[in-house]
Design goal:
five-stranded mixed β-sheet; alpha+beta; 436 residues; 70% helix
Length: 436
């Protein structure tokens, strides 16, 4: 096996006895506390919701229902703290549904009844209590059974020494083995049973832990994840609108300052050449040559601006060739590691501009001697990394090139990071979802 394989290969996962016992102990502690809290929460929430539902027709039940869902919320918060401290599970709390502005006191009082999370909290109180009624005794029985691998034979030997003439009535006797073999058979069967529990108690407790974590995450934190996805989408859209607006303003400025001014001058030169054609043909030809040069420069400007919208080489020859061209024209020597990947067009364009702007920034500010560009695919995402060996210290400053790149990447729902410790070069990384 090579050294690289030795370094990269993940170490085999081990379960020391202490860690194994601690996991079982934590679940038993969690189960006992959850059982006690669950019994109290189940009784209170069921009583309040039942009373509120039965009296809602006379309006008295509405405040009782509010009290019921708020009580459930309190027990849900206790569960989050309990799982975090004992099981190490992070259960973030979803944001509450906002109260409409201008709402009166009655609407504010009844507002918790319109929040879906409050009802999910109530459902969790009922489901979790029923669940812990099954899982805690099961985990406890499995733990006791695994301890019996030692306790069972020890108890049998002690009884045999203390009460030698008593009726054993063990499994050996029930199986009809000879009297001389009853004790060894009993001990052997007890050891086998205890060994079965001992070998399976770990997976059983892990499964029960995962079951509780999954139920809690689904009922208590699923809306938080939905809220985060919605927030990221809104941020992405806002960043996209900002990046588009900035790009349009820059394009408008470039057109005004470049091709538009040249075209105005070319129009004036053509008018002057027309006026000189009859009386000074030689001077008119000179003006026409200058006009042709102006039009050629204008065409170059338009091509440059069009590359800023959709680079022709990227469309015609693909991302690998486009990045190779960027590396070839970079003032700093650059290498590219970019296999042929099937990526959506918007992702390829995003990667192209991340590399293009990063190379430009490195040429202006980094003082680097070498740049390496790497593109690869990670699951459903495409990742591009640009590493240089310059002076570092790059920052995301408002209005800077890196901030513009961050906005462009955010508009594609991607992640953009800059790692640039002073004196140790700069790494720019963008991860773009291919389904964005």
């Amino acid at each position: 096996m090579s050294m690289a394989q030795t370094v990269d290969s993940p170490p085999a996962q081990r379960w020391p006895v202490g860690r194994w016992a601690a996991r079982i102990g934590r679940f038993l502690a969690y189960g006992l506390i959850a059982l006690l809290l669950g019994a109290i929460g189940f009784s209170l929430v069921i009583a309040l919701l039942s009373a509120g539902a039965s009296t809602v027709v006379v309006w008295v039940g509405l405040p009782i229902l509010v009290l019921g869902v708020l009580t459930a919320r309190g027990f849900a918060m206790a569960e989050r703290a309990l799982q975090s401290s004992i099981l190490g599970t992070e259960l973030p709390t979803p944001d509450p549904k906002p109260v409409p502005s201008g709402a009166g006191w009655m609407r504010r009082l009844l507002h918790p009844l319109t929040d879906p999370q409050r009802w999910l909290d109530s459902l969790w109180v009922l489901v979790n209590f029923l669940l812990v009624l099954v899982t805690f005794p099961l985990a406890l029985a499995w733990t006791v059974g695994s301890i019996a691998i030692i306790g069972g034979p020890a108890a049998t030997l002690i009884l045999e020494q203390v009460l030698p003439d008593s009726q054993n009535n063990g499994l050996g006797e029930l199986l009809g083995v000879p009297a001389a073999l009853e004790l060894p058979v009993d001990i052997g069967l007890q050891v086998l049973a205890g060994l079965l529990f001992l070998l399976t108690v770990g997976p059983v407790v892990r499964g029960l832990t995962a079951l509780h974590q999954g139920v809690a995450r689904g009922l208590l934190s699923s809306r938080y994840e939905e809220q985060q996805r919605l927030a990221r989408t809104e941020e992405s859209r806002a960043a996209g609108r900002s990046a588009e607006s900035t790009a349009l303003r820059r394009l408008e400025r470039d057109l005004h300052d470049g091709p538009q001014q040249r075209l105005v001058r070319a129009s004036m030169d053509l008018a002057r050449a027309e006026a000189l054609a009859a009386k000074d043909p030689e001077r008119a030809m000179t003006v026409l040559r200058e006009t042709r040069e102006q039009l050629g420069a204008t065409l170059d400007d338009l091509r440059r601006l069009s590359r800023g919208i959709a680079p022709p080489i990227l469309v015609d020859r693909g991302l690998t060739a486009a990045l190779a061209e960027l590396a070839a024209i970079s003032p700093i020597p650059a290498t590219v590691d970019s296999p042929e990947l099937e990526l959506p067009e918007h992702v390829e364009i995003g990667i192209y501009y991340v590399v293009s702007e990063s190379l430009a920034n490195a040429a202006k500010h980094s003082g680097a001697e070498q740049i390496h560009i790497e593109v690869d695919r990670i699951g459903d995402d495409a990742r591009v990394r640009i590493d240089d060996d310059g002076r570092g210290g790059a920052e995301l400053r408002t209005g800077g090139g890196l901030a513009g790149l961050a906005g462009r990447v955010a508009s594609l729902e991607g992640r953009f990071t800059v790692d640039s410790p002073a004196g140790h070069g700069t790494r720019i990384e963008a991860v773009l979802p291919c389904a964005s």
